Automatic annotation (TrEMBL), chain A:
Pfam families (UniProt xref): ANAPC5 (PF12862), Apc5_N (PF21371)
Single GO biological process annotation from the record: protein K11-linked ubiquitination
InterPro entries: Apc5, Apc5_dom, Apc5_N, TPR-like_helical_dom_sf
Similarity section: Belongs to the APC5 family.
UniProt keyword annotation of Chaperone present: no
Domain Anaphase-promoting complex subunit intervals: 262-361, 598-654
Keywords tagged on the record: Cell cycle, Cell division, Cytoplasm, Cytoskeleton, Mitosis, Nucleus, Phosphoprotein, Repeat, TPR repeat, Ubl conjugation pathway
GO CC aspect terms: anaphase-promoting complex; spindle
Main subcellular location of this protein, as a coarse class: cytoplasm
Locations listed in the record: Cytoplasm, Cytoskeleton, Spindle; Nucleus
High-level lineage: Eukaryota, Metazoa, Chordata, Craniata, Vertebrata
Native organism: Dicentrarchus labrax
Protein known as: Anaphase-promoting complex subunit 5
TrEMBL record, chain B:
Keywords linked to the UniProt accession: Cell cycle, Cell division, Mitosis, Repeat, TPR repeat, Ubl conjugation pathway
Matches recorded under Pfam families: ANAPC8, TPR_11, TPR_8
PROSITE patterns registered for this protein in UniProt: TPR
Record organism: Dicentrarchus labrax
Repeat in keyword set: yes
Signal sequence range: none
Record InterPro entries: APC8, TPR-like_helical_dom_sf, TPR_rpt
Lineage, opening ranks: Eukaryota, Metazoa, Chordata, Craniata, Vertebrata
Residue ranges of TPR repeats: 268-301, 336-369, 370-403
Name by which UniProt lists this protein: Cyclosome subunit 8
Domain Cdc23, chain residue ranges per copy: 37-275
Functional pathway: Protein modification; protein ubiquitination
GO CC term (a single one): anaphase-promoting complex
Any one GO biological process: positive regulation of mitotic metaphase/anaphase transition
Amino acid sequence: MASVHESLYFNPMMTNGVVHANVFGTRDWVSPYKISLMALLCEMTASKISLPERRRLNKLILPLQQGPDLSLGQFLKTVEECCPQTAYAVKLKLHEMANGELKDMEYFFYDLPNPYIAFDSEAYKTSVVGLFMRHMFLAYDKLSFSQVYKLYKSLQQYYHSHYAKPSDGQVGLPALVADDSDMDLTNPEDAVGDRIDKEELDTPLHESELSRGPLSQKQAEYFLARQAYLLKNDENKALKPAALQEELNNMLKFNPDFAEAHYLNYLNSMRVQDIFLSAHSLLHYFDRLILSGNEGKSNGDEGYGRSLRYAALNLASLHCRFGHYQQADLALQEAIRIAQESNDHVCLQHCLSWLYTLEQTRGSDSTVLTEDSVKMAAHFCLPYLASLGIQSLVQQGATQGKTAHKLMDALKDTDILHWKHSLSELIEISLAQTTSIWRMYGKSTMALQQAQLLLNMSSLEPVNFGVQQNNTEAFAVALCHLAELHAEQVTYLIRSRLSAALPRCCVSISQLLWMLCDLKIQFERHMNEGKYHLAEPLVTAISALNKTEGLYRKAQVLKALNRSTEAYSILQRLQVHCEKTKCTEVVIRVMLSTAELHWESSGFSTALPLLLQALALARQHHLQSLASETILHLAFTQLMLGVPEQALCVLHEACIEPVLAHGAVMDKGRALLLTARCNTLASLPSPHLPAVLLIPISEAAAYFFRLNCKERLRDVHYLQAQLHRSLGQTSQCNKSAMLFRLLDQELQSPAPPVSMRL
Amino acid sequence: MIILFWDQAGNGSDVTPGGRNYLVLTTNKIHFGDLVQIKKQLISVISLCKERGLLHSAKASELAFALDPLPKDELPPSPPFTEEDAQDLDALTLAKSYFDLKEYDRAAYFLKGCCSQKAYFLYMYSRYLSGEKKKDDETVDSLGPLEKGQVRNEALRELRVELSKKHIAGELDGFTLYLYGVVLRKLDLLKEAVEVFVEAIHALPLHWGAWLELSNLVTNIEMLKSLSLPDCWIKDFFMAHMYTELQMIKEALQKYQSLIEAGFSKSTYIISQIAVAYHNIRDIDQALALFNQLREQDPYRIDNMDTFSNLLYVKGMKPNLSYLAHNLVEIDKYRVETCCVIGNYYSLRSQHEKAALYFQRALKLNPRCLGAWTLMGHEYMEMKNTSAAIQAYRHAIEVNKRDYRAWYGLGQTYEILKMPFYCLYYYRKAHQLRPNDSRMLVALGESYEKLSQQVEAKKCYWRAYSVGDVEKMALLKLAKLHEQLNESDDAAQCYMLYIQDIFSCGEQLEHAEVSTALRYLGQYYFKNKLYDEASLCAQRCCDYNDAREEGKALLRQISQVRDQIETPSADLFAPLSNNTPVRRVSPLNLISFTP
């Protein structure tokens, strides 16, 4: 390994075999940038500046202190934006030093306002500025002669590298160009003049917020904390995975003992789903952490015993994320055992919450575990874990068909907890969960409202405080629901607008969610429009993301292409699988599809028990939209069995209203069409059909037109023509017949008997 | 006698119109047997290196020493003197003396205008060394903690620019190409560095330094195969060296053997390399013999003595180790190897604090000394200071990611901390690096066993046995595992193999476990009503203290049962290894394993 830090060459300051990361004891040191910053501070205290300018400068101080070293050009530019006059003064001061002698710099330090004396000034010793100044004084005092000389040299370089360039606006650019050209341009003789170019080669400065130069301990910590925070809260704003990786490698090269960088590396590798690198970094981090945590020297709560437990726990979570459930289980057992041995209840609590997550992902029932976890978490005052447990319980309850009011109550209670502890992440999850639950129950309006609430909620996190947008997983879930809801109402345009809001750089969970949602919408659209050949390739993509969903869609395509046998076998398999994994929604859908297959073979009576079973399931789980769809199917079956009155009765009793209120456009159209047909047949014996019947039909026609569903539109026109004829309205009849004829020609495929389809 | 081809370096050097001294390669192919030629080449290259201040080309002198001396008239003529050389002679002599006094900047200053190749090389080389020296000095008083990692040889970039210009113009000779490669490597431009080193080797195949630098950059066998290297006799040395580095010990030994046969039998370098290779495959006795031979031939040698001490440590030869340690201290006590030897010495005497101290000292002398980090880790493990051990091992890995001992050590540390799942990762890493080392496999198996992953554990143990078990533990563990799982046939088979294995290797190892095996086998045969075999096993059991009572009890039981049936005619006193009963369990085609 070439990049082995040779820092230890002269300084293996080891005690007890442990090399301390910070061998020099000071956390800060003087650099040319710091000197210019001090010059700025000094200028601010000395000269008269107007109030708004001073205010702007004051706001600038903290970011400048915390951020990485900037190049002089960048620094002056930032200052200039606030106060050109001060920037000029700072430049002048630096000019004096850089073009003078060593004594000028020494004089600068000597002449600085002393924070100890100036009691009433802003730079008093306890203020932020004062503290910074004192740090600098201390660091400067510690420098040896050669170090002072070196500092002065680097100050000169710092100053001249800025002015050596013709245009001071673009500092970064010429340095980059120099990389390729200096091989030809320079000759060996002017090696000294060359040196400046070379220096710049080392640090090609980006205009972005960070440079590639070394960061001080504090700056590095700040950088890591910020990136980690962004990764969690708003991935779009964090660096791209490759860039972040490079930055971290750079940091580790300068300071290999910086353990936190390994952890960030782990998080970063998780973003790109790199199991090897992430496992490696995670273990590396904990190996390092064990060292730094050693100062406690106890095996108990602090010290390295603690990090050992969390190391095992983190490993478990890593394996869980990558779907290695058995490995995760083993790691978790280990973490639990160690935690038990050392009586660490908090760690145990974390383990428990992972345990039920693991059980849940493996598809087994973990309600008891989760309940235990919630109880214990509440006992140990861990609000986060407690409400996470409750949310998980709510999710399980929803899939198991618990009554709605109980779930909502539970969510409301946790919401109170969240707001009390301002757990913004959980607030978001809670909102997203409510959206999902409403959606599942088929109350699209409520779902829409909750999704909007989440998306329009001002973030509580300081990273984008008061800004609406926040790219978390909950956010993505809400977005997906919103998109699907809009797609149901045939407003596809919104989809592209929504997708712009999502992070696109890597394969995060949100990204996968969105991809699936997008595919589903496209699929539905193609199916509705009868473009089965377009829908078919999408199935492969869907099954890559979600196997069950993919299978279901495949069966649908096969059904539409009249390959009933294959479709039937797939549906059967799917039903068995889903009954095992308790995906009630899919089970009901599969039953409906199977029933439709039965229709095709005219097995209407065989479809009935299936539909009744589906209805019972839907009712039991309060799945309203699915229930009304089932009823729709049921009514159609009854119609086909020759009892249109019954069908009408069923439709009016339980179906029409919820469908019209909450249903998708497709469902609305189908419901209306069916009603009309039932009405027609029911009143057939009497020769005089009421003209009222025509209204729902034309409404249905409008819906189908919006969907661009030509096949159904054709059916509608056929029925319309029939009705008009029986009403004796010849011209309208002819018009409908012509529309039918046009569509029929366009579709080419022979029209199936009208009666055969819902 | 092997027949190898090599490019003959002409009589010293050739003067090309550009005034460059090249060892021009002709395509004359001679046999290895032509040692006189080789010697001539060595002598001329040694003088070339010496003129250029390349001190570490001593390997060549070592080799030359191993060959028979040449008669006076056979000595190669010194390279012809060119006009340019004559011009630069005074400056060069002056600069060379400054150079020897380590006043590099001064040397460079006086060489600046010179145009001969020799002077140019020395000029560049002294600039490089001056940069390195300054870098080392500045590490002490850098401006801040984070800058310390950033301190770099300032001269490197300038050197690179100049050298690359000359390189493109094709004005570099073998030595300057070598320097260019070093500069590139220091700048972490590894790919370019490899290319330049290969070029340097082509230009001057006899310069061992370039080969050595190249060997540091080759990471795997595929890369090695893809390099186009000149067909020179020195290539065999390189290949052997590379095979050792890449843990392909068998191939390396073969190469070295053929080199010895070709006439380098007196070379201490080859002997030490073979000894190290034997050490790597844990053939301890062979390695020890070679090291002893080496000590006789070259009593003041310090190189490789740390490896020697490792061997003595493993063998537990306290007096020898103590003698070695004292001897080395007398020669030079501030050498990394010396410190390692002393550390091993203290470790063997169970004075682990002192041992750790000496390893620390070794690291102060050279922080990139891999062995010392690992050994220090072992010491801390002994002292139960797990966190410090982890630290030491991590450092070792940082120096060399492929150090399987450090990975294994980390695994052991976590195993001691009772984290069997956690340590799996580390053992797996170690196993990846040494796929045929049974120790890693046994460790993996043990961890799996602790995690109740019996299937994996069984696989590991069986594999450990198949690759040649060093510690002879895998079979026993496998048998016990089968026993636990009530797979009595498999268990019996494994015990039997174990007994055969133990007896066939001849050495008297730990016998406590043989009795366990015998006891189990006795019971097993008894249950299967194979009384002859059972009684035989019971008889053997009585040889061991801990199983005597049970053996007797079993014998009594057998005789009781036999009384009921009839008296058998078993040859109870036949030696076990010939008569191991295998009726139920089919006799296996066993090859007795020698470790």
